[in-house]
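Observation: inputs received (chain + manganese (II) ion).
Thought: call the complex predictor directly.
Action: predict_structure
Action Input:
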Amino acid sequence: MHKIAVIPGDGTGPEVTAEAIKVLRAAADKFNFKVELTEFDFGGERYKRTGETLPDSAIDELRKFDAILLGAIGHPDVAPGILEKGILLKARFALDQYINLRPVKLFPGVETPIKDKGPEHIDFTVVRENTGDLYTGTGGVTMKGTPQEVAVQSAVYSRFQVDRCLRYAFNFARKYGKKARGKAATNTLALCGKTNVLTYVYDLWERAFHEIGQKEFSDVAREYYHVDATCMWFVKNPEWFDVIVTGNMFGDIITDLGAMIQGGMGIAAGGNINPEGVSMFEPIGGSAPKYTGQGVINPLAAICAMQMMLVTLGEEKAATAVENAVMYVTGNKLKTLAAGRMGYSTSQVGDLVATQLA
Ligand code: IPM
Ligand code: MN
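Observation:
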């Protein structure tokens, strides 16, 4: 029995989450496992009603689950930052979800803006560190509102944070890299940094990367790219990449670029993972308030987030089957992934995946 906390959230979050759950139930039937779902109403509406984002008591509650499935957080009436910091970042930090795993995979039939590249070229994973860097809020402001205002926000990393992220990334490359999947002669982990400028933080990353790689993962090939060059190669030669590991801020930025080359926010999913604790899975796109309630938004990203959850729950067979069903639907059914132009409604897309799975 897998106990899942569901936070549908704001905007189109509930619509896409419903489809992810539809496919989850179809997978549970087919692969003989049980799920118990508990819904939570954290999000913009609750905040407006009660002033509460994600209270500490909720964190304690969430700790009791095997995984969390999140729809979307973001409300047009709530100032930017409140819900992001109060719910999303709070969960990531309080539950110590120190990995943000973001696959960048172009599925069959999905259009990429990159000319002459297809599914055989765009198939890599970004392991984004999820608890450190500019996201720690270390810093401050003085003389605010005056012409002399000074603002400081620091990129913070400890060796402990870097080491645990790197070990996760090396293990991931060993288990799911291109060699492991029969697509290359080696499994490769690339560090994405900025060692020419951030000579403290990315020097720490680079030394740890090679030390751990050499000692514990000599079977995994190591590469290094500066972050700016990484962006260039994502567009020019995405086939070069297998598994990429990077800090929180660079990871945030390069995975939006990654999401675009894999077909956009309609398909991009991620997992906030605590390998020793409770992980939370989410479509990367936002709450898309303007599409709320119209049944036109693409639920595949939410379905793919649920698919990643299945891997974490140990339901690998079901996860593979869900991914295959999604690829069948993108390859044979949908016109495009764009909201309103799929040729199907949100719930029809969920039905297509669920039927294909069964
Ligand atoms: C993401 C988002 C968040 C982040 C925001 C909403 C706080 O952009 O999940 O990538 O910066 O991590
Ligand atoms: Mn982001």
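Thought: report the result.
Final Answer: The longest strand covers residues 2-9. The chain has two domains: 1-107+265-358, 112-262.
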